[in-house]
Amino acid sequence: MTPDQPLVELRDVTRSFPGPPEVQALKAATMNVAAGDYISIVGPSGSGKSTMLNLLGLLDRPSVGEYRLAGSLTGDLSDDERAAVRARFIGFVFQSFHLLPRRTVLDNVLMPMLYSGVPRRERESRAREALGRVGLGHRIDFFPSSLSGGERQRVAVARAVVSGPKLLLADEPTGNLDQRTSGEVMELFEELNDDGLTLIVITHDDAVARRARRTIRIADGRLSEL
Amino acid sequence: MKRLLRRRGRKLDDVMPETEPSEPGAGEHEASEHEAGEHGSGTGASTLLPAVKHADRFTFQDLVAEATADIGSRPARLVMTILGTVLGIASLVATLGFAQTAAAQIARQFDGIAATQVVVTAAKAQSGGENKTVAAGRLPWDSPERVKLLAGVDSAALLGEVELADGETITAVPVNDPSAPITASPRLFAATQDLPDVVDATLVTGRFFDDGHDSRSDRVAVLGARAAERMGINRVDSQPSVFIAGVAYSVIGIIDDIERRTELLDAVIIPQGSARADFGLAAPSELAIHIAVGAGPQVAEQSVLALQPDDPDSLEARAPAASSDLSQNVQADVNVVFLILGVIALLAGGLGIANVTLLSVMERTGEIGLRRAIGATRRQIGAQFMVESVVIGFIGGIIGSAVGVIAVIVVAAVQGWAPVADPLVAVAGAVLGAVVGWASGWYPARRAARIEPVAALRGG
């Protein structure tokens, strides 16, 4: 990648949901995110934040406009190719963690590597390493139900980064956490960002948003940089 | 247009192994960054997706491991899920098993008589224009001694009917009374000493003749029980005689219970040697052999060679077939009502699996969304639920087969029968369970594959 090549490049992206009445959740959004950047996206609920995250995460396709990821157009990827790009390129962290309740912490972290093509013999060591990094090396054989909210979110972070993605998308990562754990999780994100991971955090918490290097506000489907 | 692009993407995917470095794991980042540098390079498939070794992809083993990981986590639900399949398969397997057991039981009762006898006769040959047949070969007089050496032969005896000249009779009264009504004479057979063993006859009184009588052409006779009754002979200590074509023969025994050759009950049996001397018996008409169960085909083949080594085709051996036609006929008579009940239970079982799998798809919407987000394809999600359903059906099938076989064994034990269950039926039962699981997993798997990650991740 050339130095000035943005990792994420949205150009006039519009996402409309056919009606009636037709709803434009995102209107002509243009945004560049450089590799290694740390961005927060804020806005009231219903403003198009989730649509934005789904588009960025290749979970949804723009109705109009183009989305380049690492310089490549994503519009003409097939469903399976998009899944493969998600597996190897993008990590997700969700508000409600989405851990599998009947699998151990280690199995939860191992799971994405099933789909991302990490060489088999590296998988377990990478999972242990990722869990060590989020400070849960001692909880490896626990089930998610026996962990606190902050610990669960850290497992989810370990799961998101274990395949070595370039881009980490976090959707309200602190929405279910108290103030102190929120801070811990955000510090973890920032450590990962310092190591070169591009980070996009969607939040409605101003305290969280202010920690980012750039903040983008969505209101009524339109982007504005703060 | 979309299809065209997709095809292009696939083609790029295909050629990737050659264009990419040989170590996809290590070269992953460098490769994608390098290619991404060529700005605006058409589809993203090649630049965003470095090739992955086949062994590191989502393989069938991964699929089975993922699909089966949760099956045992809720035992109570699993039991309820497979109950219908278990009942259905069990009733099908048991119904077929009962039918087979009953058929085998009936066949065994028949076979006890039929399956232990081989009969060798001279082959018939067509002679002249009229439908006349003549014997093409002849049985040697020492046939019993020859075949007794064969493995599987218990005993053997020659038997031949002796035709009396016209007007000659067999009677117990030596008086020729022209005014007496003409009565049919009993038939006359010539035999060798082992006949009672061969035809499983029992002696009511007296004894059977032996080789000594035979070689001396002694005029002794043994009567079938009904012939004896008709001639008014019921004991031999008074040395009764019968007059065969006017020649007096001493009755030395009476035989009964000849289940194999009931015609002997109505007959007078004399030693073969006597028949040759007195009535000019030209050749024995058949050799009856009592064999061990199951030796039929082999004894039939070997006996003709032992009897006529130079011309085995001139003799004909009739042996019981390895599996009798009778048992097949009985086998077909399966209890249709139980079969229908089994099929209905199986349908209910299939619906049960479909219901629970659908419920589990609904419950695990979040998991499905997550898996899709972290890179599972629709096909992988569908296959996961499909395999789970097939495995559940297969478990039900195995348990059902086992229950069915056990039911057959228990019922047979209570009845004192030998249980018979075709292993194929049990195996087919287990496979049928898997098929039921497959059929009932189809719709839930489709639903699971169609779940949009966006919608799935929003909730919960």
In a nutshell, what does this entry contain?
Chain A has seven helices and ten strands. Chain A is of the alpha/beta class and 226 residues long. Chain B has two domains: 182 residues, no CATH class; 204 residues, no CATH class.
Structural summary, described in words:
The complex is a heterodimer of chains A (226) and B (460). Chain A has 226 residues and is an alpha/beta fold. Chain A has a domain at 37-47 and 82-225: P-loop containing nucleotide triphosphate hydrolases (Rossmann fold), CATH 3.40.50. Chain A has helices at 49-56, 79-89, 105-116, 120-133, 149-161, 179-194, 206-210; strands at residues 8-17, 23-33, 38-42, 64-69, 72-73, 90-93, 167-171, 198-202, 214-219, 222-225. In chain A, helix 6 links the parallel strand 7 and strand 8 (198-202). Chain B is an alpha+beta fold. Chain B folds into 2 domains: 57-109 and 330-458, no CATH class; 116-319, no CATH class. In chain B, the strands form 2 sheets. In chain B, strands 1, 4, 5, 6, 7, 8, 9, 10, 11, 12 and 13 form an 11-stranded mixed beta sheet that branches. In chain B, strands 2-3 form a two-stranded antiparallel ribbon. In chain B, helix 5 crosses helix 15 (378-415) and helix 13 packs parallel to helix 16 (423-450). The radius of gyration of chain B is 40 Å and the shape is elongated. The relative contact order of chain B is 0.16. Chains A and B meet through strand 5, helix 2 and helix 3 of A and helix 1, helix 2, helix 3, helix 14 and helix 15 of B.
